[in-house]
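task queued by scheduler; priority normal; single chain, no ligands, no partner chains; default sampling; output format set to structure tokens
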Amino acid sequence: MKKLFLMLAAAAVMLAGCTKELEQRVDKLEQAVDELRALVDGLNKDVEDIQTLLDKNAMVASYDEIDGGYKLVLTNGKTIELKHGKNGNNGEAGHSPVIGVKAENGVYYWTVDGEWLLDSAGKKIPTTGENGENGAPGAPGTPGTPGAPGTPGADAPTPSFEIVNGELIVTVGETVTNLGQVAGKDGDSWFSGVKKSEDGLTVTITLTEGGEIVLPIQQNFTLTLLENEVPMVMGAEVEVGFVVSGATDPVVRAYASEGWKVKVGENTLTITAPSIPAEADEAAVEAAKILFAAGCIDVYAIDNATGLVKVRTLSFTEGKFTVNTEDVITVSPLGGEVNIAVSTDQTYEASTDAEWLTFVEVAETKAVRNETIRYTVSKNDSGANRTAKVVLKSGKAVLAEFTVNQQAAPTKITLSETEVVLSVGEQHKFAAKVEPQDADAKVVWAVKSADNLPEKLTIDENGLVTANGYYALGTNEFTVTATSVVDNTLKATATVTIVVVNVESIKTNVEEPVTLKIGQLFQVEPTVLPANASSQKVYYTSNNEKVATVDKATGLVTGVAAGEATITIHSDDEFWSNFEVAPPTASFKVTVSNELTVTSIVLPESIDLPIGRSTTVTTTIAPEAASDKSLKWTVDAPNGTPEKLTVDENGVITANDYNIFGENTYYVTATSVDNPLVSATVAVNVIMQNAEEVVLNKEELTLAIGQTETLVATVLPEAAVQDVLWSSSNDNVVKIDQKTGLMTAIAAGEAIITANSNDKYTMQQPPFKTCKVTVTSDYAVTSIVLPEAFELGIGESRALEAIVGPDNATDKSIVWSVEAPNNTPEKLTVDENGVVTANAYNAVADNTYYVVATSASTPNVSAKVAVTVVIKNAEEVVLNKTSMILGIGQTETLTATVLPTGASQDVLWRSSNDKVAKVDQKTGLITAVAAGEAVITADSNDPYATSQPPHADCKITVVAGRVVTSIELPETVEVYAGQSVDLAPVVNPGDAADLTLTWTVSGSATPEKISVSADGVVTANSYNMSGSNEYTVTATSKSNPSVSASTKVVVKPINVTSVVVENAEITLSIGETLTLNPTALPEGSSQAFLFSSSNPSVASVVQSTGVITAKAAGETIITIYSNDPYTMEQPPYTTVKVTVIQPVTSITLPETVEVYVGESVSLNPVVAPENASNKALTWKVSGVTSEKISVDNNGVVTANSINNFGSNEYIVTATSVSNPEVSASTKVTVKAYSAESVVLNKTELTLNVGATETLTASVLPAGASQDVLWRSSNEAVAKVDQMTGLITAVAAGEAIITADSNDPTVMTQPPFASCKVTVIQPVTSITLPSETITITEGETVSFAYTVNPENASNKALTWKVSGATPEKLVVTDGQIYADGFNPYMSNEYTVTATSVSNPEVKATMKVVVEQAPLVESVSVDAETITMKVGETFDTSRLTVAPAGASNKTSFRFQAYVYGSWNNTYGYGTPVSGNVITESNGTFTANTPGTYTIGVSMDGLYSVQPPFTSFTLVIEE
């Protein structure tokens, strides 16, 4: 008996310290123990109890002494009682070895009596094999899944134990050890005591005869991660703490998934997430993201003392790190703050490389970590721009990086000059230098006058000062100031003094003598010196106005009559200080000739010209006798768009475009070339003719896919802009070029092509036209390609190949034709198949023709090739036979071929002896007349030959009787190896004296592989695997050997084309076998196969027989290859998917469960074994009312309702899907909650009379009975269905609807809930005016309406206006106000009234708004008006007519130079500067002076709006 316990002790010690990898080996030991148990079947109960120690991972939880022995409680819940037996007779002394395990360097080895158990090589024997290496990583690309784990290392040899003749034999691999006698005979009880070790780790059972069984005591060994799910971002680093407790000698290891890194510290794990490489391409970025998303860390804690292992997995979520601040931050040179807004769940550090950035704080807006990082920035006094970096990092990962830029603060401003002297009208530009160099150089300029006259000296934003005037009563000294835009305390100043400079001399543009014609004009252009003279004024005089006059103010000289005159220019220096002499002058002589020049040009006052039109202006030049009437034409475009109207050198004016945003009146001027100061101007009004209609050349069209066609659009009227834009309603069917109208059919379907007028001048919807295009499913021909040009001889033919594109064109048929430039198409023809034939040669004209191939389905697609007909003279005649035997009366036709190809094939036949054989001169038909010999000759009849034509001869032998003249055989036959085919020869004539044939085989090195019978039956004996399989079989007439015929015979093998198998998927259990029986097709092909398995460890297959053996759970693919010996290519194959399963052996469910109505409980089924291939279960409920509970596929039982009248106990049964013989059941008891309260979906409700609505009630708690009964407090107002809660509104009023719980389990007043229902009388109709209401712009009208019925509860209405511009019509109850008129769109509106209480009730009426008249004239109450600076003009001084005009207060004001106003055209020379400020239909006076104010009306006038003007004097 002791022997057995030694065995059990060894197994128990081994199992007590095993890790998960030892479980399979433990199973093997259990099997060995079971076998030993059978040998000692009669041992006492103690032995049976100790066997429980073999349970996996079982340890001693506690032990106690009991009467007669000990009680051990194991960690698996089992209890063992060890009691002393009665003393027996002493047996022989035996050795009691202790078999155990011991660790060294983390590996456990077998021991006997505390010593290592060694193999034959003297090495320690481990209890388990080493782990295999990890599999290789998956292939790169879209990151592959990590490689599969390596195959586990081979098992370490596990000792086997055997008792032989009372001795214990231990076998390890090939090593056998005899441990000697293990027990005496019939000894005392097998143990003497049980003792716990001092360290509390083991319990030792001491055997009676000295042996020991050492069992481990359970320890509270745990591994705890302080975080289980950590938010991370890519590249970040984080630390996670862990705690290991209950271990004597713990070791912690961690393993990271691919791309992640983990480092184990004393109590922390340092984890680094994958990062994206700096120069990663798109694929690498995606790969890094995938590795990041799949990240996890497995943490193992191993107790070396016990071998126990704890595993925990740390997973990650995608962390958040969002920065809401730009990457580059600019700070004022004077300093300020840097604020970086961060939203994150990461731990990070903020750092900067600059001392001038001072960290203030991280301002958290909440614990969710929306925070602001703040730095203060000092003033930049360094004199240079500076840059800093702020970096946010998590570990080594940079989460964000910012650049902070600060320009240097300005410290000094220096002006280019500090004192400047200017004369009146002179300018000077100051330059401001800001220091340091890197500082912001921008400054603001200002002028200050000591006499408070800043207008005398002005300065612009660039430092340019202008001396505008001189103040005779003051100092004329001004201060110019430049102020830094960054620091307004930093300034620099300069002094500017304005002085007077007198005129010294006058120069002119005149080169004497000035010669003029009578009437000719000359403009004097003087120059006053010095240039900075304070007065530039001059005036002019003539000493002989009978010869030449001069305008005193302008200097315009006019030739009056022949002679001479002197013109003098006088300085009008208002500041002249030398009163003793007159101011300077200058003069020149003018000579006037007798010739006449152009003195006037007359043009029409104005013309109208439509866009796109041209016209020649009628011009009258005077005098008629002018020596040079040539003109120069120019255009003046006040609107700044001269390109819209042009004029050429001949005075042809063209309106190119219309100015939709401004004036369209242009001024075309004709100027005399001879007398340039004489000109005339015509006002040209560009008239816009809007597009009214678009017309297309086609309105419907059918195209094939790929076909193209261009639509043509015409815009009417003819003078309208012809520009259109094309669009397609479905680009997937038809695409169209927006500009050209070129359509391309894309796919079958329909599309509407629209041509929209692109009249950019219209104020309305431009006209358009559509064309319906249907694209059929046919594919159109888009191209045809023919061969290059070629030549044909007379009589020659050539078949042309037309390559039609695309390949998938539906109709590739071609229509062939010939273009004959020489008008002789009959000399070259082409048939419907494209065969070109040269019929004749044209001796007097061109012989080049063009053969045209045109697509039959798409006629606009074609191609042509040039074909030239050439002459080829006959050089040789060849006959089909050179000798022949005929019987008397027999006939035979010879055929002649004339060479070269393309030469005339015409021949003439003749016989050397007509008495023996006659021949038809044209056809070559020979008739045998009498026995003998004759020669038949064929002479070429080439009409183009220039020498003796060639000929050929055939010798004819005529004999008595009929002879064989021909044999007919098929041209080619195919025969498969092993099969035969009959050539069925036909011998002509059939009545020949001897029809016998002889047969021969040739054409291959292996003629023996086929044979032919005397009757012409060919048999393929075998297939030639290494050579040709084409043969020539020849039949020869025995009686006329000159007659023969041949057939090409091709031998083919019957190759396997496919392999089929009855079942493509097979499921086997471990250990099961199956033989595959495939079939090769076609029938007669080789049935030889080869078999292979993709995973022999799951299921192996015998290569030659197809016998499959299932080995382990998993899947494998069995491939069946044809072993066809004839195939030269990849043999066909098929596959069979084999699934090997581990069947389910048991299902464990709880014995009973309770569940309340409306709640669920999981039965948590346990399916064994753990590695069963298919653990799926089916579930069934049994019971009186089984529908009242349900169970889902996961074993979750839900109580749907209570059975108030019967049993509420049910049986739920789970059955294995893969092994239906295995099942388990649970008794389920359903209980119910009692109703406590009722909740309605609504507590108040408003209904119209006759309306219905269903209330819903929920009874709480959720599992209570949901049955309720409904009642109404006033059924005259509202009724309710007792069962459904359907409310019907009866009459106006109020009622309370109550839902009472109908829970049968409630023994007291049941709970209830109520809803207040208000019933109203709804509006049923609205009546509005039926006739259209017409209202004038700005007018208000009233209208009557009624709301029905009279007793409606709520008669309120809402009003809605529909139309082009609904905002221009305001409608309230019974009133309409027209707030404007739309000149471009419809002014007809629909007004809709809708009931507020019943929005389905509506009514409409029509309203038309008419335009109020525009102002036709405007006038002012005074010619001159005086205003103060800052005063606003009183528009009541203006009078308009008619008084009720819509735009009577819409005035526009413009200031012009006084005296420049042209009252005819309503314009003048605008004043520069902000003289007046126009606002809200009036203006404010700004700048002192005298001006002309033009007043015009603002409105949509077709011509120039009405205008007037007045003189405005603005005073300080």
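post-processing summary
- The CA atoms of residues 820 and 1041 lie 52 Å apart.
- The longest helix spans residues 23-39.
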